[in-house]
């Protein structure tokens, strides 16, 4: 079988998820391979946000907190996201950024395991995860320390000294997937808690937090959930932990009775205690559109297509771009891979710049990785072909070798 554009076009013709593509406002002529950084714009988002501004805010004014249920948006959208991550509706809320939610949950977890001092993570985890752990240690000032273990030795490293294991389910750079069930099981055998960062998993892979008996999780709203730049993130606290854990950010909206306006803090029952301040209503409206769209898709089909897109990308790069020093960083086996594919190259940054200038938008991750996000709702098989043929041209003609591509932009 040759992976010609014609053949890939045929795959698009029989793709059961193809109908979702028109629900996204993608610019003409662009192959968008960065939905794992910023998801594409759902067509319905503009009208929804505009309606919220014009009617709910403009006409309803402050009454809309009740009349349009703004105040319940964190729980309402959380309950919808719960369906995407295998949680119960009352175990997820949408609030704050991933970083802030990590801080709240790390501190709460360490206080709940007060006799233990060790947090386990892996080297090369997403920086915010590691930085937040450091910040939590400074806040607690109780002699905690961080043990960074390579994946292969992680299970053995968890022991009865471990308070918390914090891992990113799908690695942001390599797309390697952790076995959530096995790690959670091992941590529980040792009496430790696990906090999963689902930023690169939620909306991309089927996730079963309850099936894995997960304790805690956070995830991103602006990647596979298509909630728009800076969309709020979500946090999950398993029902059995909800009333034992307390947020270190004791804001009024996490209070049991915020509108009693009393002087003493009393945590709300359930996951609502992890809310802090006023929700970003405009941004939540866009996020809800993205989540609603994803809920219409069968996640099994989404995951199967993501795998196939990845397999085709890997196969095409091997057959079309051999001999150009591109090294596959992601697992070749689809079941071990999340929804992006990464390659290493000494001139990765310049190649990404040259691709973007030719309408193929992927991204660069320091020091030498090209990353291609695969978002099955709006990406087709033919898009993958176009991307690889553009990459081939960039490599064979050395189109990346221009002085202006050597200057790093502030954001990559
Ligand atoms: C694994 C992971 N965690 C967290 C974040 C971002 O966190 P925040 O939304 O606080 O910027 C990212 C962003 O790319 C990520 O990849």
Summarize the structure in words.
- By secondary structure, the protein is of the alpha/beta class.
- The protein has twelve helices and 13 strands.
- Helix 5 crosses helix 6 and helix 10 runs parallel beside helix 12.
- It is globular.
- The two termini are 36 Å apart.
- The model has no long low-confidence stretch (mean pLDDT 97).
- It binds pyridoxal-5'-phosphate (PLP).
- The site of pyridoxal-5'-phosphate has 13 residues, from helix 5 and helix 6.
Task: Give the secondary structure arrangement, pairings included.
Layout: H1 5-13, E1 31-32, H2 43-59, H3 64-67, H4 73-85, E2 92-94, H5 98-112, E3 118-121, H6 127-140, E4 145-148, H7 154-157, E5 162-168, H8 180-189, E6 193-197, E7 216-219, E8 234-237, H9 281-295, H10 299-320, E9 327-328, E10 340-344, H11 348-357, E11 360-361, E12 363-365, E13 369-373, H12 381-396
Parallel strand pairs: 1-11, 3-4, 3-5, 5-6, 6-7
Antiparallel strand pairs: 2-8, 7-8, 9-10, 10-13, 12-13
The chain binds pyridoxal-5'-phosphate.
Strand order of the largest sheet: 2-8-7-6-5-3-4
Q: Poorly predicted ranges (pLDDT <50, ≥5 residues)?
A: none
Supply Rg: 22 Å
Q: Which ligands occur here?
A: pyridoxal-5'-phosphate
Oligomer: single chain
Question: What is the H/E order?
Answer: HEHHHEHEHEHEHEEEHHEEHEEEH
Number of strands: 13
Measured as a percent range, the helix fraction is 25-40%
Main sheet, how many strands, which sense, barrel? 7 strands, mixed
Task: Assign the structural class, choosing from mainly alpha, mainly beta, alpha/beta, alpha+beta, or little secondary structure.
Answer: alpha/beta
Beta-strand residue fraction? 5-15%
Molecular shape: globular
Mean pLDDT: 97
Give the end-to-end Cα distance, rounded to a whole number of Å.
36 Å
Put simply, the count of helices is 12
């Amino acid at each position: 079988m040759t992976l010609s554009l014609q053949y890939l076009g045929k795959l698009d013709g029989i793709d059961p998820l193809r109908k979702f593509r028109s629900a996204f406002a993608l610019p003409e002529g662009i192959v968008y391979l960065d939905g794992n950084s910023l998801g594409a714009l759902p067509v319905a988002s503009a009208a929804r946000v505009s309606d919220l501004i014009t009617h709910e805010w403009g006409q309803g004014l402050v009454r809309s907190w009740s009349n349009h249920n703004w105040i319940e948006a964190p729980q309402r959208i959380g309950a919808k996201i719960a369906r995407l991550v295998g949680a119960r509706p009352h175990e997820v809320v949408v609030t704050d950024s991933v970083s802030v939610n990590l801080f709240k949950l790390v501190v709460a977890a360490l206080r709940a395991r007060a006799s233990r001092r060790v947090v386990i993570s892996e080297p090369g985890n997403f920086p915010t995860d590691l930085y937040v752990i450091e910040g939590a240690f400074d806040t607690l000032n109780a002699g905690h320390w961080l043990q960074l273990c390579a994946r292969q030795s992680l299970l053995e490293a968890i022991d009865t000294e471990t308070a918390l294991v914090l891992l990113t389910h799908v690695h942001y750079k390599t797309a390697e997937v952790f076995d959530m069930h096995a790690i959670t099981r091992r941590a529980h055998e040792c009496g430790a808690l696990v906090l999963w960062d689902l930023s690169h998993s939620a909306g991309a892979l089927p996730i079963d937090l309850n099936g894995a008996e997960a304790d805690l999780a956070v995830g991103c709203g602006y990647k596979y959930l298509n909630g728009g730049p800076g969309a709020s993130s979500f946090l999950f606290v398993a029902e059995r932990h909800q009333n034992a854990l307390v947020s270190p950010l004791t804001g009024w909206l996490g209070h049991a009775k915020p509108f009693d306006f009393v002087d003493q803090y009393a945590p709300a029952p359930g996951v609502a205690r992890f809310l802090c301040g006023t929700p970003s209503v405009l941004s939540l409206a866009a996020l809800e559109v993205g989540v609603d769209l994803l809920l219409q898709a069968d996640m099994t089909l989404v995951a199967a297509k993501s795998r196939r897109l990845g397999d085709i990308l890997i196969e095409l790069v091997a057959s079309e771009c051999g001999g150009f020093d591109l090294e596959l960083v992601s697992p070749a086996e689809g079941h071990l891979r999340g929804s992006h594919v990464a390659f290493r190259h000494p001139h990765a940054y310049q190649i990404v710049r040259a691709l973007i200038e030719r309408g193929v938008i992927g991204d660069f991750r320091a020091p030498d990785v090209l990353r291609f996000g695969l978002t099955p709702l709006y990406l087709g098989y033919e898009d993958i072909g176009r991307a690889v043929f553009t990459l081939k041209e960039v490599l064979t003609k050395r189109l990346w070798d221009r002085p202006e591509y050597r200057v790093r932009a502030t954001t990559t």
